[in-house]
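Lecture 7 notes: from sequence to structure.
We start with the chain below.
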Amino acid sequence: MNRDLTVGNPGAVLRRFCLPLFGSVIFQQLYNIADSLVAGKFIGESALAAVGNSYEITMLFIAFAFGCNIGCSVVVSQLFGGRAYGEMKTAVTTTLIAAGALCLALMAGGLLGSRALLELIRTPEEVMEASRLYLDIYLWGLPFLFFYNIATGIFSALGDSRTPFLFLALSSTANIGVDILFVTAFDMGVAGVAWATFLCQGVSCLLALAVVFRRLARIPAEGRRPLFSASALGRVAAIAVPSILQQSFISVGNIVIQGAINGFGTGVMAGYSAAVKLNNLVVTSFTTLGNGVSNFTAQNLGAGKTERIDQGFRAGLGLVWAVCLPVAAAYLLAGRQLLCLFIDAPTQTALDTGVTFLRLLSPFYFVVSAKLTADGVLRGTGSMGRFMAATFTDLILRVTLALVLSRTGLGATGIWLAWPIGWTAATVLSLLFYHTGPWRRPAGEP
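Predicted structure tokens for the same chain:
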């Protein structure tokens, strides 16, 4: 059901809208968590290292899909809030066409250069073939990833966060079962883990597209609108390209960091692979709640109700901090037990690596969640220059410090210390940009 986010108590509206989004991101992360869990439990530590190693490269492709999601979602939110339904439908079809072309180019480049990418991050020879196999199968499923992300962005733009949640709940649960079936019953190894994700994500993508087209057909629009518009593409690209660059550079930075981690051996790789999945589950939850703030902000900006933006930010901050408290406590107190979910008979090196990573990062979830909530407002208002400045500050600091500190007596621990430093600096900038945002200026003021 479509929902107007421009009316009603902002806090209550945002909570109702974001709760299914939060559920959706949990199930979305189950795709990758299930892959690592099944690989570590049913195949072995080397398989876990291979899946985790490929994961950093897959995040580069996810960055492009996520950028298309955000670009389409923000523009559609603004047009939906402003009741410009004809332009809204053109923006949707334009995004789908452009994303399809981009996806094909990425698939070709990825399939031709997968081994080169793995060599670039110093993948150990003992996990090279498994990493490449997982990555190649993943690349064949890129169209499902792209179009599913766009569909969920459209649902969110229309104020409907429940439908994508239902799709993800079913497909992610099925993915766990198919993972185990392919690996244990069919003895497919790492390939079984990859094919399970391919099949389940494909089904959810096709269902989501079918429903979103039906939903759009029910929204009245005067006259026939073009399927593709250069102006609509430019408007979507103005949001999508900075988001893609942001996510891509983060992914490239993570690939560089993965290369530094790989130099410490398979045990550290496996421990990091398990711990970073737990970390990404939380940070992605914050990002998704920030996307909810983006949709709320964009609809209200389109409707000219800018006074509701601050109320939405405060409500969003309350939501992410409510998530921070139990998660930070769990990672600090039960990190070792959570890591054991991923690794069967883990080595001491793997366990010590994962526990140290979680204990250093989890207290700073309160910091990075504030940044991602402020980023949601910046994206929703189209303040992409400010958004990118804060993000690149985090990235540059994190990558530089990781490379420098890893070469000191701190070893791998030096890499983990780079995260909270980068998060803190970037949060200061994001909050500053939020409090001085251009939407606060009176009409007509430059």
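Points to note: The chain is about 85% helix and 0% strand. Residues 317 and 373 are 6 Å apart (CA to CA).
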